[in-house]
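Let's inspect a concrete specimen:
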Amino acid sequence: MMIRRLTIAFTLAAVLAWLVPPAVAGEAATPQDVIAKVKEAADFLEKNGESGLKTFDSMDSPFVWKDTYVFVNHCAAGLADVAHPVPATKESKVAALKDATGRVIGPELCAAAARPDGGWVEYMWWKPVKAEGAKHLDYAKKMSRKVSYMLSVKGQPFEVGAGVYNDTATVEELDALLKQ
């Protein structure tokens, strides 16, 4: 009788594990998630200023979630990724920041952030990956279409952004979400 109950319990657990996907890094962020997290990051930096930048550098940051992360630029100083959870892309020049195809995107990101409600920019990038036992995020080898929402931080010289890896959403559709 006990073996039968254990067998039923294990079978039920296996079926539930198969039917209900876990909330892990493989889960995709939605545009609404990105908007909320970028606004939260902007509020955080508005209150904490430069001393808050280190919060964005860690893969254990509350600003690294699902399959994306928040990054911080300092466009007035011409610096992209002054805070970023992937060390390989930290502290580059805005004017030289290129996507995975070689297209310069830094100035576009800054221009989108300068709009009153911020804005979205489309480009090709690599998805972040977290290797088991790693102390930082890295990038996958295959590039993907990324659309990032950028927003200026009130009272600070920073711009924050995060993106969705999405092959179909248009910048116009995503900008319309900002007016809701």
Observations:
- The chain has four helices and eight strands.
- Confidence is low (pLDDT under 50) at residues 1-25.
- Residues 131 and 172 are 35 Å apart (CA to CA).
